Amino acid sequence: MKFPMPYAQTIDSEFAIVGGGVAGLAMAIAFQQPNRDFILFEQATELKGIGAGFGLAANAMRALDLLGLRSEVEQIGYYLNSYHILDAHGQLLVAPDTQAISEKYQQQNFAIHRADLHLFLLSKIENQKLQLGKKAIRLVQHTDAVTLFFEDGTQHTSRFLIIADGVKSPLRQQLIPASAPRYSGYTCWRATIDNAQISLDKGTETWGKLGRFGMTPLIHNRIYWYACVNSTPNNLLYRDYTINDLWRHFGSYHAPIPAILRQTKDNDLIWNDIIDIQPLKHLAYDNILLIGDAGHATTPNMGQGACQALEDVAVLRDALTLEKNVRRAFLSFEKRRLSRTKYITDTSKRIGEIAQWDKSFPIAFRNRLMRLMPARLAQKNLNKLLSVDFMKTT
Question: What are the pLDDT digits (tens) for 217-247?
Fold first, then answer.
């Protein structure tokens, strides 16, 4: 419900951005380039990119290119010239032709540590445009503005609001009460470790009866790894898992998985359940827009979470260039993004369900099909994932 503006209400900024993740930081950079009036609010008192690694596929690199950031991001990313899916014994299931992808889209694929990307994006934002320690807990949507209310008792009124505060966004929950995060059926551990003794030089993901294990090199001779197992949500047993527990669980998997686990310390572990949100019917709500995980959180099975956030920013930047009326630009963004983000969310969910099969017969059937899959079919699916036109021509 929209309310009229209170009498003599002050407009503090044209745009407010809530959330200092990849989507929010990149949006701030995009707003700075044409010198739009905005403020970015982040609930953390320090932005340090908590987490581990993720992929920046060719579509994300194209978005960064449009923002003038690609060449610098390439310097802090690890170029992935291959990424294989293996079975528990290390036998190949699928090997996408990443070189062909790079040539077709004239962009390379990278793995990057979340903290490295966050700090880089943060370095591009003017200090006065960023307010830390500001947790937005409620909004009031007026006819021509939006007022944010923060946990510290302060408030801020802007003409337009960009909600980018992640999968658990309280602001999205207020707008769309039925949009609570949904549990995927599996939980995940992540860590970043030194690569000196492992010498890993390519990215892989292993699918086995006991769960999945992924690993990829990062710059500065580091490895990012993750492990997923089927579980009930908020499983207290897994919350207290140690490296020794994970080694006992995955110790029968192929090399170098046991060695990677042996090189990891308990305090390196990050644990969380894997969640997403059911695809929304709208992203634009008059003078409010949802972007990034707040609008279309996806499971990480396609490596597209950060990529889709960057796509959002590139598309919104283009929409605002073509359409001076911001509300109409928001609607244009919604029209251009809804079907694509739904495809990513739905496909990623389905891949995760298949990858997490834990019965011997279905696994054997799945693995055989994957090995027999024509290369052109696998490549066609990748082309659909990576083919996105950031520039609207009609």
Answer: 999 999 999 999 999 999 999 999 999 999 9
Determine if residue 264 is left, alpha or beta; phi over 0 gives left, psi from -120 to 50 gives alpha, anything else beta: beta
Q: How many helices (H) and strands (E) does the chain have?
A: 14, 18
Q: Which residues pair with 190 in a beta bridge?
A: 226, 270
Can you name the residues that pair with 148 across neighbouring β-strands? 139, 156
pLDDT at 394: 38
**How far apart, in whole angstroms, are the C-alpha atoms of residue 338 and residue 280?**
8
Burial (CB count <10 Å: 0-12, 13-18, 19+), residue 33: exposed
pLDDT exceeds cutoff 60 at 393: no
**How far, rounded to the nearest angstrom, does the alpha carbon of residue 33 sit from its chain's CA centroid?**
23
Residue 124 in this model has a pLDDT that exceeds 50: yes
Closest listed residue to residue 337, CA positions, set 282, 300, 377, 381: 282
pTM of the model as a whole: 0.94
Checking if the pLDDT of 392 tops 70, the result is no
Q: In whole angstroms, what is the distance from residue 354 CA to residue 365 CA? A: 11
Q: pLDDT band at 374, cuts 50/70/90? A: confident
364: Cβ contacts below 8 Å, ≥ 6 apart: none
Residue in the block written with tokens 């932005």 = 47
Residues 6+ apart with CB under 8 A from 136: 18, 41, 43, 148, 149, 150, 151, 165, 170, 171
Angle made by CA atoms 74, 349, 354, in degrees to the nearest 5: 105
Across the range 181-204, mean pLDDT stands at: 96
Beta bridge partners of 212: 207, 228
Residue 44, helix vs strand vs coil: coil
Q: At what angle do helices 22-32 and 305-322 cross, to 10 degrees?
A: 30
Count of CB atoms within 10 A of residue 183's CB? Answer: 14
Q: Report, as an integer, the average pLDDT of 181-210.
A: 97
DSSP bridge pairs for 157: 147
Here the tokens at position 289 are: 């827009």
Mean pLDDT of 92-112: 77
Nearest CA to 182 out of 283, 296, 94 is that of: 296
